Amino acid sequence: MSLTTFSLLAFADLFPRGVAQYAVGGLFIGLGVAIIYLGTGIIAGASTFLESTLSYVSNVSRFNRTKYVTSRDWRVVFTLGIVGGAAAYALAFGEFGWTTQVQWWRLLGGGFLVGVGTRVGKGCTSGHGVCGIGSLSETSLVNVATFMAVAIGTAQVVAALGVTP
């Protein structure tokens, strides 16, 4: 077996359903954040979009900054579009229900830790990883490198401990 054939087989193992859906998704994400930035001058980080929706229900000053309140209506539409896009995909391809074997409490704990990390890192993977790296932000480059190092390290520790979903 040649090295090229071996490389292609290893690649196929990583993406058993192919790469087309990931490529199309990446193009849509890139197009979406470019349109938002060119149209508004705002970086399309999902955590900031979600945080701005809290200005509807909270009197905390952090959530009621002028930039959030003046742009919150279209930010809510964007946030609902994320959920709506997932729903449309499920309807189109019939993939409903729970799609993971991970217990709910682990997902809840992981979600909490991601939320804390988002606050500490001043943004999420979409803001830093898609928009920040695209604009060559040094902060985003450091944050994404940190995200990846922690994710790879965590995966290695979990695998070494034999933890399963």
List the helices and strands and how they pair.
Blueprint: H1 3-14, H2 20-40, H3 46-53, H4 66-93, H5 104-120, H6 125-134, H7 138-161
Helix pairs in contact: 3-4, 6-7
Structure, explained:
By secondary structure, the protein is an all-alpha fold. Helix content is 73%, strand content 0%. It contains 7 helices and no strands. The chain has helices spanning 3-14, 20-40, 46-53, 66-93, 104-120, 125-134, 138-161. The two termini are 35 Å apart.
Mean pLDDT: 82
Report the end-to-end length measured between terminal Cα atoms.
Answer: 35 Å
Task: Tell me the β content.
Answer: under 5%
Low-confidence stretches: none
Question: Helical stretch count?
Answer: 7
Number of strands: 0
Q: How is the main sheet built?
A: none
Give the helices and strands as they follow along the chain.
Answer: HHHHHHH
Structural class computed from helices and strand pairing: mainly alpha
Give the overall silhouette: globular
Helix % is: over 70%
Rounded to the nearest angstrom, the radius of gyration is 19 Å
